[in-house]
Amino acid sequence: MTTFPADFADLEPFADWAVPTERARYEKRLSCTMDELQAFYDAVFPRLEAGTEYLKNVQLDGISEEDTRLVWLFSSLVTVSFPVEVWAQPRVPDSGASEFNAVMEPAI
Amino acid sequence: MAHFQKPAEGSWTEHFGLDTEPVNYEDSTSPAHYELERDAIFGRTWLNVGRVEQLPRKGSYFTRELDAARTSVVVVRGTDDEVRAFHNMCRHRGNKLVWNDFPREETAGICRQFTCKYHGWRYDLEGQLTFVQQEGEFFDLDKSEFGLASVQCEVWEGFIFVNLDPSNTTPVRDYLGEIGKSIEGYPFHLMTQVHRYRAEVGSNWKLFIDAFAEFYHAPVLHAKQAVDEESRKLQGFGYEALAYDVDGPHSMVSSWGGMSPPKDESMVKPIERVLRSGLFGVWDAPDIGLDELPPGVNPARHKSWGTDSFVFFPNFMVLIWKPNWYLTYHYWPTSYNTHIFEGTLYFVPPKTAYERLQQELAVVTFKEYALQDGNTLEATQSMLESGAVNRFPLNDQEVLLRQLHTTAGRYVREYEEQQSTTPVRISAAS
Ligand code: FES
Ligand SMILES: [Fe+2]
After folding, report:
1. Nearest CA to ligand 1 atom 1
2. Considering the domain boundaries, does residue B316 fall inside one?
3. Do A108 and B193 touch (CB under 8 A)?
4. How far is CA B51 from CA B77, B124, B155, B161, B405, in A?
5. B11, B113, B328, B381: which could join B203 in a potential S-S bond, CB 3.0 to 4.6 Å?
6. Burial level of B176, CB count in 10 A (0-12/13-18/19+)?
7. Final residue belonging to a domain, choices B101, B132, B164
8. For B210-269, how does the pLDDT look when each residue is reduced to its tens digit (9 = 90+)?
9. B109-146 pLDDT, tens per residue?
10. Which residues of chain B does A52 touch, with a Cβ-Cβ cutoff of 8 Å?
């Protein structure tokens, strides 16, 4: 069994980014170097457009495990887009030790 | 140069009858003043504690820690479908009634009755005492006299409010005034896809409201969140609201948008272009069955409207966004220089995985902004506490801050006057 739907088998090397919650995705982002974040972004962002076309036809009701993991992966891309596109560092600048935690989020 | 029309008085601040002098921030640095606020404000105003969707069935309940008001409440849907609130306290010897593992943490669930962990007294969903362990050992115990201590509780547009002042006679709808009435009918009940964030913030509660009640900071503090050229342009313009309103203790600011979708897609970040979403929400707004928005939403009926922020005194904000979603902020004080902030986003439930991903981008963008907003607060609090400077000029785009601090100060003053004219209550502490 593969992690993602067949059309997105090329993303298999990034399977560890298929993380189920925003809180955990954000923690993974903070644990990475900018090089790691950039490498992930450079590989996955070019696949986002095909991903959105594909996911437009995926109903959340009864979603398969492969499709679920694909949503998680692209959700990680959302989380990683900020350091790469905006901050040039993993953490929001000047955010020091401050935390802003998801305490409720709808499961995918 | 003004881009948007101001009132005839020349400024919003004067229009609302507020003074224009520099503001003193001692109301945010004094432990003694905070103690007064607890009783004068949090002990007697209507506080929003949640939404009816959190109580989907008979027996659904949640607890709320109201540290500022010196209590915890349990809010429950009864067998008659009424929503009620009680002090979260057993009538036997005062144990906290509803909690799990950690007595100071909030909890929620569904039950048929409440059972005290200490000696097993039981209460039904309407608060009546129904069972006493070894009842015969007590002395003429009349169970009907030992129901849970109830708290005034009313629902407005699906928002559940409590008021801890038993002598309060103002219904919540009247309390929320004209500003509240002007947004009635907005379909909050359709937006049941909920994301909530929580932060412990090292500042007075009013300072975070300050940060969210003005957008004067936005082109500067959030400069990097737009692409470079756009950001320079925004800083050049500065910020002007479309409209402000003040009614009693409450207020609102109406802001332009233009980002959902943007006029020019090169203005926004690459991921926003692909996912068609961002700070202002998902560009493709879901149908919410409204021909026209309630009169208080986009009150100026401006074409470039983006979002309205309603500040309901003391600690509850509602933000309604053009692409049919909303956001709430709650600020729960825990001391004069700390509070718990909650930001909750509400969307129409997504049908496809793509729509879920679009909402994810709106949610995460909110978080990135809020982390920036929150960061300045501890820095501000610590310097305010130094007392080195205590006169701060507020501009006309900061009118809601002036309104908030003036209102909070008035509540405290009126409370003090009342206390000095009524006989002092004997308290256990003195
Ligand atoms: S304190 Fe609740 S039963 Fe004794
Ligand atoms: Fe901000």
Report:
1. B93
2. yes
3. no
4. 12, 22, 8, 9, 27
5. B381
6. buried
7. B164
8. 999 999 988 888 887 777 777 777 777 788 999 999 999 999 999 998 777 888 888 889
9. 999 999 999 999 999 999 999 999 999 999 999 999 99
10. 274-275, 354, 357
CATH of the domain at B117: 2.102.10.10
Ligand lying closest to the C-alpha of residue B368: 2
Cα-to-centroid distance, B80 and ligand 1 (Å): 26
Establish if B69 belongs to a structural domain.
Answer: yes
User: Containing domain of residue B293, as a range?
Assistant: 12-26+176-413
Residue B239 is assigned to a structural domain of this protein? yes
- Complex ipTM, two decimals? 0.98
Residue with tokens 């929150």: B374
Q: Is residue B396 part of a domain?
A: yes
Amino acid at B309: S
DSSP annotation of B213: S
B146 CB within 6 A, ligand 1: no
Residues ≥6 apart with Cβ < 8 Å to B30: B336
Among B87, B93, B98, B129, residue to substitute to test ligand 1 (most atoms within 8 Å of Cβ): B93
Best mutation target among A78, A87, A108 (most B Cβ atoms within 10 Å) is: A78
Residue B289 sits in the same domain as residue B145: no
For residue A52, the chain B residue with the least C-alpha distance is B354
B90 Cβ below 6 A of ligand 1 = yes
Asked whether residue B246 falls in the same domain as residue B154, the answer is no
